[in-house]
Amino acid sequence: MLPLCFIPLLWAAFMDWKKRIIPDWTWITILAIGGASAFLFPEPALPERIAGFLLPGVCLLLLAVKYGGVGGGDIKLTAALGFYVGLNALAGILFFALLPALLYAAAARQRSVPLAVFLCIGFFMYAGVSFIYGLTC
Predict the structure, then answer these.
(1) Half-sphere exposure of 44 (CA within 13 A, CB side)
(2) In a domain, 12, yes or no
(3) What does the pLDDT look like over 4-42, one tens digit per residue?
(4) Neighbouring C-beta atoms of residue 49, cutoff 10 Å
(5) Mean per-residue pLDDT, 53-74
(6) Residue 66 predicted with pLDDT over 90
(7) Does the residue 15 lie in any domain?
(8) How many domains does the chain have?
């Protein structure tokens, strides 16, 4: 199930790195694939997908409102990815994404980072670990 959103996620990462913009079609495609896969695959269950959509999306939205460091594209992409893989898998993806993002921000001395790049890195790392250890998401 994971490989279905490689292309839109890679494109979102590329555009975020180059122009700091995440095209709407990328997160919409990931959300649509998540919607279709919810009917085709039993895992993750629909409540976990909804939690993966709402929890990170609301948290990032609150951070964006309060501190202004998170863009709307990052919020939408994270929420769509959360719906696609579910809350548990999204937690794994964020685990692999946030440490490199923090290191990049410290090395580049920036408060704002292209989050889609690090979500993509986290996604590929999580997919690799899932493949090696035979985990499902």
Answers:
(1) 23
(2) no
(3) 789 999 999 999 999 999 999 999 999 999 999 998 988
(4) 23
(5) 79
(6) no
(7) no
(8) 1
Q: What sign does the dihedral 106-5-74-63 (CA atoms) show?
A: negative
pTM: 0.88
User: 3-state SS string over the chain?
Assistant: CHHHHHHHHHHHHHHHHHHCCCCHHHHHHHHHHHHHHHHHCCCCCHHHHHHHHHHHHHHHHHHHHHHCCCCHHHHHHHHHHHHHHCHHHHHHHHHHHHHHHHHHHHHHCCCCCCHHHHHHHHHHHHHHHHHHHCCCC
pLDDT in tens, 111-127: 788 999 999 999 999 99
**77 is in which domain, residue-wise?**
24-133
Tell me how far CA of residue 102 lies from CA of 20, 124, 127, in angstroms: 17, 18, 21
Question: Long-range contacts of range 97-106, CB-CB < 8 Å, 24 or more positions apart?
Answer: 97/121, 97/122, 97/123, 97/125, 98/122
Q: Which two tokens stand for residue 126?
A: 């999580």
Is residue 13 a part of any domain in this protein? no
Structural domain includes residue 118: yes
The better pLDDT of the pair 98, 135 is held by 98
